[in-house]
Structure formats: structure tokens, C-alpha cells
Amino acid sequence: MARIVELGNAQLAECGAGELSVREIARGLGMVSSAVYRYVCSRDELLTLLIVDAYADLADAVDDALAEVDAGSEVDAGSGTGAGADPRARFRALATAMVRWAVVHPERWTLLYGTPVSGYDAPAESTNADGTRVMARMLAIAADAGGAPAAGERHEMHVDPEVQTLLEAHLVEFGVQADAEVGVRAVTAWSGLVGIISAHVFRQLGADAAAVGEQLLASQVELLADLVTGR
Amino acid sequence: MARIVELGNAQLAECGAGELSVREIARGLGMVSSAVYRYVCSRDELLTLLIVDAYADLADAVDDALAEVDAGSEVDAGSGTGAGADPRARFRALATAMVRWAVVHPERWTLLYGTPVSGYDAPAESTNADGTRVMARMLAIAADAGGAPAAGERHEMHVDPEVQTLLEAHLVEFGVQADAEVGVRAVTAWSGLVGIISAHVFRQLGADAAAVGEQLLASQVELLADLVTGR
DNA sequence: CACACTCCGAGAGCACTGCTCTTGACTCGC
DNA sequence: GCGAGTCAAGAGCAGTGCTCTCGGAGTGTG
């Protein structure tokens, strides 16, 4: 079972989700294809397994990065208050951890944030738990930063009332205290972050942009940090 | 030939790119599968055809929307200067046109900005021309807006020198006059726009978020407009 | 008119896929 | 010892992309 996921990830890394084949996995296991169906009842279920595995792996990487930056700020400041690093540094850590993970595991990133594979829709009930972990952490960062974003001078925002109630419901679901405006800024920054990483992984900005991708991403992350922290 | 693309789009609309089958298209044409290979030499080439078709269609839709908003501002202002609408309105028009197109043609959007299909990488030489049309228009909008973004009070930006030269080269390639900072803001807004639309089309924010997706997208577009116009 | 040449589609076939069903071997508890 | 349960093998079905050959149309040329 664990070996199936392991082989699946290996095959994912060198082919891509569309080429993932249970027969090939069976060959890797030294069995015939039908035997694999003892353990996983369809190719879609195998994909689901790999998806939750990838979600968990990504979330672990992000958690590690956040723990590290928090620990670092503790040492630097010597305060020992447990408040951790400032929101901008935390967002930067989260974002760069995601970028790094995506660059190391492009096919798994594709599996999570690319096209839902060929008519297969991920069963929300089994992927949501791990799939929302890192987004929840980002919401917390945004809530932490977004108290009162220098109200007077900023462009006023109109949040649709329906969106507002929905966002506020989700904010309490994730256990963060913030108003809807922080929520829409966080969601936008989240989608933007996924977007710039996908653009990089999928090389949608051209081959030469990919060459300097790391530096370009750094600048873009700063802009998104502006968005999250209320500029 | 044109019928092949037509049937391909139809099949795309109801199945998705992964399920696109030249045999099925042959059935729609009333021929046997091998006959299709007279006109298109592989499934990948068929995909490429559909991709450039989709790029052109999207770009046309955006062009129409921009022409309309410019014409509207002419009538309203009665100035007849030919300057068109202000950058924020133009960006809004571009973004909502993209959103609308993506919602109407989710599978084609997926083809363009989702996962590159299963080991197939789009041949840049044939897709670039149409693929960059709408991004070029957005760069022009950003350049138009981004003269001097109230320098004193804003967070200073560090653009990597390598990124700077590359961006500036691309800016002149697209015929817009702007510095690298405008470029990185535009690229970020572009990737962000693609990201929020993909999040919506792929329903990555959950089923209930999809229900109020249109209003949520409107708020997000405003935030990205801030980014493009230098807040 | 007859020949040749090109274009188009049919059909068979290869290697591959996901998936199902049946059959047989092995192990464990009673 | 002997059922019961677990596991894998093997055959097979329907589907895929793609290649090859062959046989009819149409068309131009001597």
C-alpha cells in the first residue's frame, strides 16, 4: 500500500499525472495489473491517494518553514513572548516554502493546482482536510497583520454582502478573527500566489522568464506580501 | 479541417482535454479514425490547433471589451481625444472579459492555463503569437497607468538586475514604455488574474465559494487593479 | 482514349490502457 | 484435516493513438 503510493509518486515525477498507469505500477511492484486492484479500487482512487499525500507533504513543508522563521525571530529578539516573527516575514516564509516545494515536485504541484485530471473530480471529503491546511495558515497570517490598514488614505473596498457573510463564516471555521475585507485580500493573495507559482512551474511566461524565475518570484512575493499585510 | 477544430471544441466542451479522442472526432465526421490522420498528424497537433484557436478567441473577446469601454468613455466624456477610458476601467474591462470567457468556456480555459496536457508541451513557435496578445494589452494598460506611483510613501521595491534587464527587453518587445517595476507589477497582476480565474473555474476554493464566485471575483479584480495602477 | 498520378477514405493490425472475472495457491483458526 | 479467507495470476473486453496497405475516385497528359 505504502509502496503503491511511493511508486505512484516516482512515476508521477517522471511522467506526469496523465501518464500514470496502474499497469506500470504493477510492473514496478513485480505483480500483474489486476493484483493492484486488491489495494486500490480504481485509477481515480490512486490519484486521490497521491493528491492527499502531496497536500500533506506540502503542508508539512510550509509548517516547517513557519516554525523555523518563528524560532529564528525568537532567538533574534530574545523576547520569548511566543508571538513569532512579524506577518511579512511569516508570509515570505510560507510563500518561499511553497515555491521551493513546487520547484522540487513540479508534477505533484500540477496534480494539486493544475487541471483537475481528465474528467476526474477530487472527492472533497477526503482531500479537504489536508488541502486547506496551508491556506488556513495564510489566513491566520493575514488576520494577524490586517488589523486597521491605515484606513483614511486607502482605496475603499466594496465587498458584496453575500460574499461577506460567506467569508466571515469561513474565517471562523478556520479559527481566525478578521473582517471580510481581510478575507478577500487573503483569498486574492492566495490565488495570486498559486497563480505565480503555476506560471513558473508551467513555464507560461516563456523560457527566458523561467531562467530568472527565482528572482522574479521573489519580487512578486513581496508584492503579494503588500497585499496580505494591507500594504 | 475547420470541421475538425469545430468538433474538437465541441468534444472539449463536454469531456475535457484529457478525454479528447481522435477516434471520437472521426465518428463525428462519419469517417474511420485513420482518415483523420490525413489532416492532422497526431493528437498533439490537434491539441495545438485547439489551443491557438482558444487563444485567438479569448484575445478577440478581450479586444472587443476594450474597444467597447473605450468607445463608451468617448461618448461620455465627449472629448474625442482618442485617449480612451482610464487605466482602471480598462483593466476592469479586460479582467471581466477574461472571467466571462473562462466561465463560458471552462474546458478551453483549462487547455490554456491549466496543466499542460499529459507530457505534451505546447510548441511555442505556433502558440506564442496569439497567446501573448491579451497579456500585451495588459502590459500597455499598466504602462499607461504606472508613471510615478506616489514614490515617497510607498514601500520601496528591489528588482533583481537580471530580472530588470529581461523585463525591460520584453517591454520594448511588446512596444510599451515603462520601467521594470511597472513590469513586475504587471506580471504579478497577470499571474494573479490567471490564478483567481483558475481558482474559480477549477472550484479550488470549495463549492460554496463557487456559488458567489462572480461577486468574489469582482472584489479580487479591484485589488488587482490597485496593483496594476500603482494603487 | 488510356495511362499515370495524386488525393482521400476504409480496414486491419500493433501496442497500449483501465478494468473485470475466474482460477488456483497459500495461510490461518477451528 | 478442513473450510475460510487472502492474495496474485491469467485471460479477456472495450477502448485508445497510430501505422500500414489497399482500393476507389478524380484529374491532368500523351
Give your account of this protein's structure.
- Two copies of one chain form a homodimer.
- Chain A is an all-alpha fold and 231 residues long.
- The first copy, chain A, is built from twelve helices and no strands.
- Chain A has helices at residues 2-15, 22-29, 33-36, 43-77, 87-104, 106-113, 124-131, 133-145, 161-173, 180-201, 207-211, 213-228.
- The mean pLDDT of chain A is 86.
- Chain A binds a DNA duplex (30 and 30 nucleotides) through helix 3.
Number of strands of chain A: 0
In the CATH hierarchy, what is the superfamily of the largest domain in chain A? Tetracycline Repressor, domain 2
Greatest chain-chain contact: A-B, 56 and 56 residues
Instruction: Estimate the strand proportion of chain A.
Output: under 5%
Give the structural class of chain A. Answer: mainly alpha
Low-confidence parts of chain A, pLDDT < 50 over ≥5 residues?
none
* Major sheet size, sense and barrel closure of chain A: none
Measured distance between first and last alpha carbons of chain A: 47 Å
Helix percentage range of chain A: over 70%
- Rounded to an integer in angstroms, the radius of gyration calculated over CA atoms of chain A is 20 Å
CATH C-level label of the largest domain in chain A: Mainly Alpha
Name given to the CATH architecture of the largest domain in chain A:
Orthogonal Bundle
Overall mean confidence score, pLDDT of chain A:
86
User: Count of helical segments of chain A?
Assistant: 12
Assembly type of the chains comes to homodimer
